[in-house]
Design goal:
Elements (H helix, E strand, L loop, with lengths): L1 H28 L15 E8 L6 H9 L7 E9 L5 H7 L3 E5 L7 H14 L4 E4 L4 E3 L3 H10 L4 E8 L6 H23 L11 E4 H6 L9 H11 L4 E11 L5 H31 L6 H8 L3 H11 L5 H25 L3 H6 L3 H10 L1 H8 L12 H11 L1
Parallel strand pairs: 1-2, 1-4, 2-3, 6-8
Antiparallel strand pairs: 4-7, 5-8, 6-7
Helix pairs in contact: 1-6, 1-10, 1-11, 1-12, 6-12, 9-10, 9-15, 11-12, 11-14
Length: 398
């Protein structure tokens, strides 16, 4: 019995900090968003940077989405950084009237390297702020104006809502949309509610010239956005949430495409946990309490694994951990339901949660690949999407 109790306590310890983080950010997400006043002039020049690796099928749609936005007061340029492309991404982007930067470096492959190259060239041209979106993205019409307004309110870095464009294509994409409503809407909104840095989601974020000069974009891991956000927090630069605009991106439909994407995202996250949790804990113990929430956020395991460990506690005959597991599972349910409410979820989104147990089992089967990815350096492996052929056909007809 002693060893069973010890096992239950160890499993509970793996999840307890994540449970505390879920409580914290869920409560924060219920706070009303603050209305901030304009405190400085808009940036005179704003570049929207689109890192692209073999995106000829999607890039025109993304550029046209930006061109259809309501115009801000800043002069806007659309810049595509075509990184190690073997297709016609650069040519297609030029035909769509975007500025194109071409990068070839077989030794340094990855989105972080591409962004660093683009930022260096744009800063040399005098650009005052940048917005970053992925090459498979459609932005909301007010994206540029809402981002500019946040810069005018004093933001040195910002992140807007980031959700799924093709949520209705399959049960997988619909379930992923629910996950992103929690991860990319409720969680940053919750951190904004507590006046904390909201994090960077890799798509739909922005940085000022001052931020890039203070913290150069040298992040080059598989999850360079998470790595860069940790660098910003260490430098005491806060990312603010733009809750009134959204970017939406295509997600893979096939099992192979989903597996590739999830192992890259979550394997990279495991790597960041291994590399940064010890140092963050050390700094928190030294009194740098602004690093406490990023530490808790890193301690929160992928939600499927977090839920699995809580369920694993239920049959272990140790009452304290059984009660804790029930409480932890209740927190997860509340967190997801509030994410659907805050994010504008539908009844169909609620219904798709019925397949969540099968999704959790599938995620557990990916664990060996996740841990393998966590040991790798950054690489840019493009995820195949069902929309590629359709978009390509539409572009050829237009």
């Amino acid at each position: 019995m002693f060893w069973i109790n010890l096992l239950a306590i160890c499993i509970a310890l793996l999840t307890v900090f994540g449970t505390l983080e879920l409580i914290f950010i869920t409560l924060g997400g219920l706070f009303p968003m603050r209305k901030l006043e304009k405190i400085r002039a808009a940036p005179k020049s704003l570049a929207v940077v689109i890192p692209a690796h073999n995106e000829e099928a999607n890039i025109t749609r993304t550029i046209k989405s930006l061109q259809s936005c309501d115009r801000p007061s800043a002069a806007v340029s659309i810049v595509v950084i075509a990184d190690n492309c073997t297709d016609n991404t650069a040519e297609v982007a030029q035909q769509a009237s975007a500025q194109v930067l071409i990068r070839h470096n077989e030794q340094q492959r990855g989105k972080g390297y591409a962004l660093d190259e683009a930022f260096s060239q744009l800063l040399a041209q005098g650009i005052e702020a940048v917005l970053i979106i992925d090459a498979d993205t459609v932005v909301e019409r007010n994206f540029l104006q809402a981002s500019e307004a946040k810069f005018c309110q004093g933001a040195e870095a910002l992140q807007c809502r980031y959700t799924v464009l093709n949520a209705q294509d399959s049960l997988r994409t619909q379930l992923l949309n629910v996950a992103l409503l929690a991860f990319n809407v409720l969680r940053p909104r919750g951190r904004e509610g507590w006046k904390l840095s909201v994090g960077i989601s890799g798509n739909g974020f922005g940085l000022t010239k001052n931020t890039l000069q203070t913290v150069p974009y040298t992040a080059n891991s598989v999850v360079e956005d998470l790595e860069y956000h940790l660098a910003l927090v260490r430098a005491n630069i806060k990312v603010q949430f733009v809750d009134n605009t959204t970017v939406k991106a295509d997600m893979p439909v096939s099992g192979k495409g989903v597996a590739t994407q999830r192992t890259r995202w979550e394997g990279g996250r495991f790597r960041m946990m291994r590399e940064h949790i010890p140092s963050l804990l050390f700094h928190v113990l030294q009194g740098k309490f602004r690093l406490l929430e990023p530490l808790l956020e890193l301690c929160l395991l992928p939600l499927a694994l977090h839920v699995f460990l809580l369920i694993l506690l239920l049959p272990l005959p140790f009452l304290p951990t059984q009660l804790y597991a029930l409480f932890g599972l209740l927190i997860v349910i509340i967190h997801v339901l509030i994410a659907l409410w805050i994010g504008g979820g539908t009844l169909r989104d609620l219904q798709v949660l019925l397949i969540a147990p099968f999704y959790i089992l599938w995620k557990l089967m990916l664990l060996p690949r996740l841990f393998k990815t966590a040991r790798k350096n950054a690489s840019w492996i493009r995820t195949a999407r069902q929309s590629d052929e359709k978009i390509k056909d539409d572009s050829e007809r237009s």
